[in-house]
Amino acid sequence: MQVLLGISFLLLVQIVVVTGQQCSEEGVVRLADGVNVDGVRVSGRVEICINQQWGTVCDDDWDVAEARVACSQLGAFDFAIALTEYGGGSGRIHYFSCAGNENGLLNCSSDLDVDYCYHIEDVGVLCYNAECNETDIRLVDGRTPNDGRVEICFEGVWGSVCDDSWDERDAEVLCRQLGYDGRPIALMSHPVLSNYPLLYHLDDIDCTGSEDMLSDCAHGGIGVHNCMEMAEEAGVTCSECNETDVRLVDGVTSDDGRVEICFNGLWGSVCDNSWDYRDARVVCQQMGYNGTSVALSSHRVLTDESLFYYLDDVDCNVNANLLSECGIEELVFITVVWGMKKLELYAATPLIAMKLMLGWLRVQPPMMDWLRFVSMGCGAQCVTPDGTTGTLELCADSWDMMDPHILC
Q1: Residue-wise pLDDT tens digits, 65-113
Q2: Cα dist. 276→123, 214, 312, 315, 317 in Å?
Q3: 237 by DSSP, 3-state: which?
Q4: Is the same domain home to 336 and 321?
Q5: What CATH code is carried by the domain that includes residue 280?
Q6: Considering 281, 296, 325, which residue would you say is the last residue of a domain?
Q7: How many domains does the structure of the chain reveal?
Q8: Collapsing DSSP states into helix, strand and coil, what is residue 6?
Q9: 328, 198, 219: which is closest to 271 by C-alpha?
């Protein structure tokens, strides 16, 4: 009696394990738990109809050739990538080994209803059409054109760069390739705002700094990475101007306007205290004008953006060729370090430095719009609601024990 009961129990368990969803068309393929981006990019766990039951595919030997065959059954796609990140399915598990030119998975070598794979090993695919040119780069999910998560194009698809070993030399090459002056303002693990699974094209990038393109740098191999979390994407904020350059903005004509100077890759204004024709002459000369200059005080502001003042009490002599060479009040130097992010800049006063710093923090994802003061002194340590801690350093003669509460 005990033996019969044991046999009945085993049979019951076997029936439960192999039961899956029903289907009717033998060999048809579908993708489950994935994403369809306007039919241009589709992804998901591969499921195939065998003996009127939907089953999954074992990841043993699953590679580009098999993914290409599966994608060909789903539509006319240029590229296919084999993935294993869509979770486990249910039903029977099957094995396929393809050359890549078959008309369907059932035309490949196969082993159906295997017992050596588990659903944790179910495979997926990404099928897509070419959307970019090889080795092109771009910044996405940022708040300005020169800020964002780094993506590079390989085999017609955009993919992320893992932030392992990501440093300033790598960012310099990237910014230079994008047409910026090559000095990054910040390095960070950029948050992901995409609505489809990320691909990592590059990891362990090691640039010397002299390369013309990010793809010229040493790396671990295309598609080779160990980044699994969505917080490991390399990001950067490139400089939007060349150091100590000057420009005129908000004017009626190109030779009229509010004076701005570039420090630390960002444009900032010049305060009109002590501003006179000698200072104006240097600005005009630096911009390539040779005629008479007119110093305008308190130029009208036609921008909705907050103004940052880099210089105050400018005092140019007759020998100055650049505005940055003129005598000015001693600038406040500020360093902001937050995780992998770093900002170094100069400002005319501690208050201006704080405004610059807070303005910079506001455009750095994740948004740090709530900071709590922890300790006082030359610098302050603040924490975000999720417990992330960073050190904010702001040192100047006028910095005192009451200032950090303004900072945080």
Answers
A1: 999 999 999 987 877 888 877 889 999 999 999 999 999 999 999 999 9
A2: 71, 46, 12, 8, 11
A3: strand
A4: no
A5: 3.10.250.10
A6: 325
A7: 4
A8: helix
A9: 328
